[in-house]
Structure formats: C-alpha cells, structure tokens
Amino acid sequence: MQDTGEVLAACQRVGQRLDTVPAVTAARRWQGLVDAGFARVTAYPEVRSWARDHCNAFIELDIEPTARAHAVQVLSKVPQIVSISIISSGRDLFLTVLAPDLATLSRIVLQQFQHLPGLRRTRTHAITTVYGEGNHWRLGALEPHRSAHRAHQPPGTPVVWKDRHREVLRALGDGRRPAAEIAAATGRSGATVRRWLNEMTTGGLLALRCEVAQPITGWPIAATFWARVPPDELDRTAALLTELPEVRLCAAVTGSDNLVMTLWLRSLSDIQRLEAELAERLPGVALTDRAVTLHAAKRMGCLLDDNGRITGVVAIDPWAPG
pTM score, two decimals? Predict the structure, then answer.
C-alpha cells in the first residue's frame, strides 16, 4: 500500500533503527527475507472490530489421519478460513474463520465441511470479544530504545465496511502493495485508492502486520490454552493476559470454556511455567485444556511449509461465495 517514495522513507526509518543501515540496504535485506519466505506484510480485516460487527469463530475439526493432508489442502483455499493449525490434545485441525454473518459461517460449517472426506466431527466456538491479536504482538528483537521509536497513529472515526472497502481488500494480496497497483487492479484512480486505504486504516477496518516464519523468531513453540473465567471477571482477566509477552491472541468465546489464548513460547517447558504463573497471578482462571501446534499450515492468509516459511497467499475475503 506504499508508493516508491513511501517505501524509501520506510526503509530509511528501518535503517536508522539498525545502526544507520542505508535505505537501499534495508530494502534489499527485506526483499531477501520475503523471497526466502521468512517474512511478509499481510493485510486483513481488523479482527477486534470485526468481532463486534460481524462473525469470528474458532472451529475444531476431527479428521481421519489419512484424510488430513487433503483436508488442509482444500481448506487452505477457502478465503474465509484465515488460519489453519494441526494441533495436539485430541483435536486434528484448529481453524480461525472470518465471516460477515452467522448465515455465512453456518454455510461453511454445515455445507462446505460436509464434503470433506474423513470428517468425523466439528466443534464451532463463536468469538464474542477479541481482547488481543497478533498485529499488536512484538517479537522483542529490537532494544527498548530502538523499538520505542515506533510511530503511533491516533485512531480516526470508526467506519463500517462498504462495497469500496471490500473492493480494496480483495485487491490486497500483499500489505505493501503499492496504491498504484491496487488502482490498476480495481480500475480506480490512485488518489481514490489512497483515500479509501486511509479511511480503512484510521477507521479501524484494516489491520497490517508483519508475518514472520516462526522458527527463526526465537519463539518456535505455538500453543493454545482453553480456560473458564467467571463472566464478571472476563474483561479484567483478559486485559491482564494480553500484557503477557507470550500471548498473541486472547478472545472470549461461546461454550463451556469461555476464553481461548494462543501463545508463542521459547520452549515446551514454558507451558508448565506459564501455567504456574497464571495460577499464582489469576487464581480465578481455570485452565481446562492446552494443546501444542504440530504444524501451522496457514496464518492470516499466508500458506506455510513444514519449516514455517511462507510459500504463498490466499487473499482474505469474508464475502467470497461458497
């Protein structure tokens, strides 16, 4: 979403954070990471505002082992399924879905999934509130005096999704795609596209984040925790949980377990350490289950190989036809 001058300015700022690395060097290093599948900027509906006005859900699928690879291949192509993980703890696939409404979510679960060979069972957990999400998670690779220089843009007036916003989202295969390319793809003028993009980002519709291959981050373990929290303690508890550096996503859901957390950890032993820390700090939180991610096949539209590298992108489109 940047033109040439904006890209150059961004690379200059990155270079300043990295001991005055020249902008051209920063740009070359970034492109090297992208070409190798280690990093990519993704663009998608801001999930916290989306959960308020539309429909987010976590879906667990039990699949026959011999049918799992085919199921992942098929589901990875569905634009509403933004993330797919193969996880432990009695579950096979753990999906994150963005849909415009409950009817669309129902169609995906009750119609599209039923055609999957080897499907044994599905469990759907509608997300009622998103407290913390991956675009606010920080890797911690920069020293505090460098990372503190990140620019913070004050939020603008909230807006609602309109046809023009959907049009731009469908054209965004890359979060850094120049506005001129989006304009060419949509038949709009560059000035119009830039105005719409600004409206989407400042109005809380569109989120941008740098997706990084997890094995190179120093946080190679992904895990999911399910918990039960007294309803009157949910907001306060979630606010405290999102302050933990390991927590990438924290959301309230429907069902007997009303809180789900996804975490990135430095080692498997961190699971036990974190459980003990939560028991001490938040005794009202009852952890009911925990699972380790065996393989993340898709993350916010990015397709991942067995080493966590990005091999392609399926553009996120909650309104895509079935």
Answer: 0.88
